[in-house]
């Protein structure tokens, strides 16, 4: 029994070691890279319900040295990373798709070309996902993300050459909007980082946004709200202010008719939520990562992607990604399930063997304390004396 228990423990240790990448997300910190026009910031978010964010490294952004920067980050920290893109590197907006549209991707591509100041080519990183049904049920609203072409190409090459492993990538606005996905009412959010960003969000969906170099302009804010009302028939009555940016008297007056609250917003904290439970499926649904990110740092992905065709002009850059959906680290549907089953079965085997061993050990201890009675071959009988007192009598041998 002890041999079987030892063998089970060794097998369990082997399973834990070979799947340490999966297990690390539950017991270690998650490292997140934020890329803004001025700096690349690496933060560590502790696992568990009570998260804390610790800034580990801040590096001035030098696009010509991006590969070297990512290589330095890779050497400094173990594991893989999530990436948050600053608002200047990604365009985030919503598109309403009429019910019954045959080619939804082409419909969104045409609408996206009208929204962004760049051409959407087969090498553009863009994607969309459904967020909510519209109130009249005649259309659905999807979140669309288009990455800036030059940065997309530069970052893809830097990832491929540095070999850094990327789990997920999303715009900062998507991370911030996640903080409001459980709120039933739409909100106008003013957030300050390097610039002041204003966006309207509803249940985690970014409907539209604008940015300001210094202080928010009430006239531009009014245009933003009017645009959202006209396009989606959604009007925010709540305003959330995150940051210490000043508000002009005119802006303060403009917000007087809203329910205003102040608070903190942390894109690192919100990005970390993306890997938890029900949100895990959402991580890869906005599929804007270039192929280099999927291949780098993982030989399994290299084998998985071999032979996949290049994107066609008709279907767009993401068409060939759809054949390898959810192949980021920790999201192989079959492999992940197999790993969980092996992990669980190994643990149960160890637990069962330990319980059997413990039970036998207890039985041995009981035998030592209460040894079995030794038979003498003489029987003992009980007789009843007339007085009613029971007395044991041992007969003598004749």
UniProtKB/TrEMBL annotation:
Keywords: Membrane, Transmembrane, Transmembrane helix. It comes from the Bacteria. The chain crosses the membrane at residues 337-358. It comes from Candidatus Wolfebacteria bacterium GW2011_GWA2_47_9b. This is Type IV pilus assembly protein PilM.
């Amino acid at each position: 029994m002890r041999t079987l228990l030892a063998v089970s423990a060794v097998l369990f240790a082997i399973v834990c070691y070979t799947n340490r990448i999966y297990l690390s997300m539950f017991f270690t910190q998650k490292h997140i890279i934020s890329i803004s026009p001025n700096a690349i910031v690496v933060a560590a978010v502790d696992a568990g319900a009570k998260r804390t964010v610790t800034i580990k490294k801040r590096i001035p952004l030098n696009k010509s040295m991006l590969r070297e920067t990512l290589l330095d980050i890779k050497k400094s920290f173990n594991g893989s990373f999530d990436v948050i893109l600053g608002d200047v590197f990604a365009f985030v907006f919503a598109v309403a798709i009429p019910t019954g549209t045959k080619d939804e991707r082409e419909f969104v591509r045409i609408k996206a070309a009208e929204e962004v100041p760049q051409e959407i080519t087969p090498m553009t990183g863009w994607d969309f996902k459904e967020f909510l049904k519209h109130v009249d049920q005649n259309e659905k609203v999807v979140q669309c993300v288009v990455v800036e072409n030059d940065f997309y190409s530069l970052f893809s090459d830097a990832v491929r050459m540095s070999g850094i492993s990327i789990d997920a990538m999303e715009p900062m606005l998507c991370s911030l909007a996640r903080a409001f996905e459980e709120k039933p009412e739409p909100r106008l959010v003013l957030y300050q980082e390097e610039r002041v960003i204003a966006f309207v969000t509803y249940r985690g969906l970014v409907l539209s946004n604008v940015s300001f170099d210094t202080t928010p302009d009430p006239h531009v804010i009014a245009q933003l709200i009017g645009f959202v009302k006209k396009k989606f028939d959604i009007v925010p009555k709540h305003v959330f202010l995150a940051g210490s940016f000043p508000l002009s008297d005119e802006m303060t007056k403009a917000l007087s008719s809203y329910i205003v609250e102040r608070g903190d917003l942390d894109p690192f904290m919100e990005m970390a939520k993306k890997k938890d439970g029900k949100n895990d499926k959402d991580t890869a649904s906005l599929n804007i990562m270039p192929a280099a990110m999927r291949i780098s740092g993982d030989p399994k992905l290299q084998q998985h992607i071999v032979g996949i065709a290049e994107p066609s002009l008709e279907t767009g850059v993401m068409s060939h990604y759809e054949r390898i959906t959810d192949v980021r680290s920790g999201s192989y549907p079959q492999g992940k399930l197999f790993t969980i089953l092996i992990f669980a079965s190994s643990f149960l085997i160890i637990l069962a063997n330990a319980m059997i061993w413990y039970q036998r050990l207890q039985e041995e201890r009981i035998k030592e304390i209460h040894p079995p009675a030794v038979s003498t071959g003489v029987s003992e009988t009980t007789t009843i004396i007339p007085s009613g007192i029971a007395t044991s009598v041992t007969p003598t041998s004749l």
